[in-house]
Amino acid sequence: MITNTRKERIHKALLAAQQGDEEAYSLLYDDLKGLSFKIYFNFLHGSYRSDDWESDALEVLLRCVQHYDCQNNRALFSTYYMTALHHKAVDRLREMYSRNKRIEQKMLYYNGLDAPCIDIRTENYNPEEIAITRAAIEEMAIPKNADYRKVVAFLIGQGPKLHQPGAQTEPVIRVSYRFKKLLLKHLRQH
């Protein structure tokens, strides 16, 4: 809850910032920094860098100071600012989700089909980890030749079963299962 002294301090800093006082912006930002990090930890923690969010929060603060009407206010400036931060966080989440969708749509598959053969979705929306994973998948999916494509498809469980009649297939299946698990673990780590 905002105390009267803090409320008055924010109001005075807001009026000074609207008049062009640049030091008032830093006072406002220091007083309202907790709100920006509350929104960050509730919505973007782990998927968006905190220093990028800090610059976004400062940009939102500059815009809120310009648009907030001190005479006909229906809400406190802190509430107005928090609502604007919430909208910015939702915009960032939507942007990340749509970027991940575009990455999936641009990928080429080893057999040239439009439909994916393996599930390549990830629950992680960290841009750095997505770029590393995408590079690993693209490197693995480069069609060197038809035999290479068949072997990769077999190892990840998507290709035809390569066994001879009468041969013992259980150890091969176990080995390919372990290899597939190790491959997926490696892709997730990098």
From TrEMBL:
Any one GO molecular function term: DNA-binding transcription factor activity
Domain of life: Bacteria
GO BP: any one term: DNA-templated transcription initiation
SUPFAM superfamilies associated with the record: Sigma2 domain of RNA polymerase sigma factors
Name of the protein: Uncharacterized protein
Biological source species: Fructobacillus ficulneus
Organism lineage string: Bacteria, Bacillati, Bacillota, Bacilli, Lactobacillales
